[in-house]
Design goal:
Helix content: 40-55%
Distance between the termini: 37 Å
Mean pLDDT: 95
Strand content: 5-15%
Order of helices and strands: EHEHHHHHHEEHHH
Structural class: alpha+beta
Radius of gyration: 17 Å
CATH class: Alpha Beta
CATH architecture: 3-Layer(aba) Sandwich
Strand order of the largest sheet: 2-1-3-4
Number of helices: 10
């Protein structure tokens, strides 16, 4: 079904982010229904939330989201579809199944489940260029003012944070949300519109993110929106 509006988007994500995962489900639906070209790009929550004195993620031998994205960068060189499949598998493992894809052995198991060589983990981490790819894309979108994910970057250079959701719409509702989101591009000086979260909303978010909360091996950093 052809739709008016942008026909392509850079979708910046970190596999560790539960909100980006939910939004990625929606953008895949938009892609499949409207033919929008979704280009998966990287963003590091570890780096953006790094406190002074701690190592940068690229200074560690293994660094949760950073290393998973390096695997994705290696796969993307072969085919963007492989990165799409890797993000789907690792994101589903963490945010739905409560597994720990941020651990090397689980990452290897997921690659094998995808029919890929589990040694891709080693290949990706032995290749310094995969880290440079992640870092470049992170810095490019941070230079646009990005502070978290999901962040959408369009071909005209505009960037939007969100949409932030926990129940990705499907079918016509997914396309309607795409229409509303991309409608913001007509108003480049509209910076923020946010729905206050009531107790019932926070309870729903906690329920939706329960597998992720149980599987994470880190403390999430909550920073106010700039």
């Amino acid at each position: 079904m052809a739709q008016a509006g942008p026909t392509a988007v850079d979708f910046h994500f970190d596999i560790m982010c539960p909100y980006a995962y939910q939004t990625s489900i929606w953008i895949r639906e938009v892609r499949d229904l409207a033919g929008v070209d979704v280009r998966w790009r990287f963003f590091s929550l570890e780096e953006i939330n790094r406190t002074e004195g701690k190592k940068h993620p690229w200074e560690r031998d293994w660094s949760y989201g950073w290393s998973m994205m390096r695997i994705g960068a290696y796969l993307r060189r072969i085919d963007m579809d492989l990165l799409d499949r890797w993000y789907w598998a690792a994101g589903t493992a963490l945010h739905v199944e409560g597994r720990k894809p941020h651990r090397r052995q689980v990452a290897m198991e997921l690659l094998e489940e995808l029919g890929l060589d589990p040694q891709v983990v080693t290949f990706a981490l032995d290749d310094p260029e995969t880290g440079e790819e992640v870092r470049r894309e992170h810095e490019i979108v941070v230079d646009k003012g990005a502070f978290g994910v999901p962040t959408l970057v369009f071909d005209d250079g505009q960037a939007l944070f969100g949409p932030v959701l926990i129940s990705p719409p499907t079918g016509p509702a997914a396309l309607r949300l795409w229409e509303l989101v991309t409608g913001w591009l007509e108003f480049p000086e509209v910076y923020e519109l946010q729905r206050p979260k009531q107790r019932v909303d926070l309870m729903a978010i906690a329920e939706a993110f329960a597998p992720y909360l149980a599987a994470r091996d880190w403390v999430s950093v909550q920073r106010p929106t700039p």
